[in-house]
Amino acid sequence: MKYLRSFALFWWNFVVGDDWRVAAGLAIGLGLTSLLTHKGVNAWWLLPLAVALLLAGSLWGETRRGPS
Amino acid sequence: MRRPGRISDPAEVSTSTILLILGAFLASAVEFVEALTIVLGVGIVRGWRSTLIGVTAATIVLAVLIAALGPALQVIPIGTLRLIVGALLLAFGLQWLRKAILRSSGYTPHKDEDAVFRREREEAAQAGNEQRAGLDWYSFTVSFKGVLLEGLEVVFIVISFGSAQGRLGLAAAGAGAALVLVVGAGVLARGPLQRVPENNIKFVVGLLLTSFGCFWGAEGAGVNWPGDEVSLLGVVAFLGALSFVLVRLLRRQRLALVPAEVKA
Fold first, then answer.
1. pTM of the model
2. B255–A contact, CB cutoff 8 A
3. DSSP label at B118?
């Protein structure tokens, strides 16, 4: 059980990292892009915009506390 | 206009091919520098036999992983593969970019390979002398874990970069060149590679991983990029400019937070 937990934690840190909200936002961004594309909208702009907002938002949240 | 999901012609050298090799080379170089620091720290203090057996064992595990994952990924349809790889690269690349921006703006300290090397040496000197299967168990496990964990990131980047563009060989060649360069420089320097501008490289790698993630993720979701592969350069430029602005803003914000007496 301990090894299973360590294994899961390793992959969580590897893929998701420090801010799970960024990973969740990316999943939503990709889902929305797929949805819009299937409705006939060529939403190439959505993902770069989502990345920009998620990156800025995550950094803003991280730096509110000041330098570590 | 290129159809979404098409794999590049092997003979065609495109913008994305150059960026792919550059990305695989730089990302691998950074990970190899980190692995080299660990291996040198242990090997110099406790001897090379068990340390190098640990390195070899980890390399075999990584090679098995590549041999298993590489062909397995080829049976997945390219559109689905790009969606999955794009999502993973986005999540992974944004972590690198975020850390690089925090370091460049002064919010977190830069990584000091020399300090890591000194710490590894101190820990290696203080560790007990447990022998298992004729090996110095500390040297074996530390070098095995160090190479395996840093190597996993290399494997992930090489496989994702290579498979999504159908150019696994080129991505692996980029990583191989980085390995030869880093190990060669390490042997010549006989110490950790302190002068490697690690944060700057991580910045570029984070930017490339995130840009490729955006490009392939959107393509996998069915998007037709305007201007085809040229738009990848547009994504790199957009995210590069954004990162530059974020570093400047965060630097200004950090300086505003520093009390006046500290500034004086």
1. 0.81
2. no
3. H
